[in-house]
């Protein structure tokens, strides 16, 4: 598997507009806009930082994965995403190594990226996303 760099750090927030104040006004990061990913019941907002981004995640519905995360843990770092060269090859390699995955096949995430998550029990409690962008 070829990991290219940290693609983004996902931060769960109760509201993007309130959350964005710190990243945009305090740190001076550029706001790239919002996108709702209906399949994941989440609205995202990206703030580029070099080759990486900060991604704010706001639950569209309380029973969504981000909604359940917020209810259980509150606002904070939700996941770390690594950009990979070939997500299909990466998932095949992880499966061959016996690594437990949340997604055995890629799905479409924000910005049209192909994404898949590794189960946090394999990563010392960190939710890790693999991300392929074309």
Nutshell version of this structure?
It contains three helices and eight strands. With 134 residues, it is an alpha+beta fold. The radius of gyration is 15 Å and the shape is globular.
Describe the protein.
It is a single chain. By secondary structure, this protein is α+β, with helices and mostly antiparallel strands. The chain is built from three helices and eight strands, in the order βαβββαβαβββ. An eight-stranded mixed sheet has the order 2-3-4-1-5-8-7-6. It comes from Desulfoluna limicola. Residues 5-133 form the VOC domain.
Enumerate the spans where pLDDT stays under 50 for 5 or more consecutive residues.
Answer: none
The helix/strand class is alpha+beta
Spatial order of strands in the largest sheet: 2-3-4-1-5-8-7-6
Helix content: 10-25%
| Strand residue percentage | 35-45%
Task: Please give the alpha-carbon distance between the first and last residues.
Answer: 17 Å
Cα gyration radius (Å): 15 Å
Pfam family, one: Glyoxalase_4
Family: Belongs to the methylmalonyl-CoA epimerase family.
Keywords: Metal-binding
Protein name: Methylmalonyl-CoA epimerase
């Amino acid at each position: 598997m070829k990991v290219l760099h940290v693609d983004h750090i996902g931060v769960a927030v109760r509201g993007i507009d309130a959350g964005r104040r710190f990243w945009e006004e305090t740190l001076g990061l550029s706001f790239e806009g919002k996108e709702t990913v209906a399949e994941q019941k989440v609205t995202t907002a990206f703030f580029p930082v070099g080759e990486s981004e900060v991604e704010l995640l706001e639950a569209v519905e309380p029973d969504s994965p981000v909604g359940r995360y917020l209810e259980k843990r509150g606002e904070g770092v939700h996941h770390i995403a690594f950009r990979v060269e070939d997500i299909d090859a990466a998932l095949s390699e992880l499966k061959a190594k016996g690594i437990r995955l949340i997604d055995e096949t890629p799905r479409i995430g924000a910005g049209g990226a192909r994404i898949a998550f590794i189960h946090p029990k394999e990563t010392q409690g960190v939710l890790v996303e693999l991300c392929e962008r074309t």
